[in-house]
């Protein structure tokens, strides 16, 4: 009798088949929270590719590289070692051995990351790194970002594109800022978010774009738990197909 899809994982007999899931979309649509939770539930690894672009940006900012000078950014693109942990319960990232998990979330990095990630030498270096990390996870991986389904892993088993209204996204990000700083300007948060979307969607090399074969999920009216459930169902259906 043929093995069921649940029994075809060569690494963990009896577990589900390895699966590579690409989750893309603009800021605040729930990519990181959903990807982490889904990976934890299904025993998959997790890669936050935005954190990689943030880490290289942070390294450049702290090493005197002018992030608005594309030639200087390209020249420095190969210098820092960027290492991500892929445990969904403890995601982390280092740049040249220094823990970057906290500093990559500052406003300074957020404001500079689109310019740095638009530089082709940065993208080719980080894309190569992402492919090698995904290839080293025999249990499967959830990889989230902007160009995973279109460029990094065009052969992913499942591609999901998350969307949400600008108002919902600003409210979510605003909630985070309020928890961190005690206050948040929702209008300014929305403006900054839309500015970053425009930059990420209009760059020449692998812009933020829904892959033709991605499943689009509008999360505006959904709770995080509903989005997680929806993605888990899509993955399990895919593994059974
Ligand atoms: N469907 C949802 N409803 C309400 N809040 C959400 C939802 N999805 C995510 N969030 C919250 O919104 C914030 C941003 O989510 P995050 O996963 O970081 O988005 P992204 O990775 O797409 O930028 C987090 O605080 C998260 O808990
Ligand atoms: N695959 C990716 C992931 C992120 N980026 C760039 C563009 C994004 O604005 C930044 C930061 O991504 P990140 O996912 O951390 O952003 P948010 O959590 O949505 O605020 O990195 C990219 O160019 N390609």
Structural key phrases:
alpha/beta; five-stranded parallel sheet; binds deoxycytidine diphosphate; single chain; binds adenosine-5'-diphosphate; disordered N terminus; 9 helices; Cytidylate_kinase_dom; globular; 241 residues; Rossmann fold; three-stranded antiparallel sheet
Layout of helices and strands:
Elements: E1 20-24, H1 31-42, E2 45-48, H2 49-62, H3 70-76, E3 82-85, E4 92-95, E5 98-99, H4 107-117, H5 120-135, E6 141-145, H6 148-152, E7 158-163, H7 166-181, H8 186-202, E8 215-218, H9 224-240
Parallel strand pairs: 1-6, 1-7, 2-6, 7-8
Antiparallel strand pairs: 3-4, 4-5
Helix pairs in contact: 1-9, 2-4, 4-8, 7-8
The chain binds adenosine-5'-diphosphate and deoxycytidine diphosphate.
CATH architecture: 3-Layer(aba) Sandwich
Low-confidence stretches: 1-8
Question: Bound small molecules, which ones?
Answer: adenosine-5'-diphosphate, deoxycytidine diphosphate
Structural class: alpha/beta
Biggest β-sheet, characterized? 5 strands, parallel
* Assembly state of the chains shown: single chain
Q: Mean pLDDT score, rounded?
A: 92
Q: What percent of residues adopt helix (DSSP H or I)?
A: 40-55%
Beta-strand percent range: 5-15%
Count, helices: 9
H-E string: EHEHHEEEHHEHEHHEH
The total domain count is 1
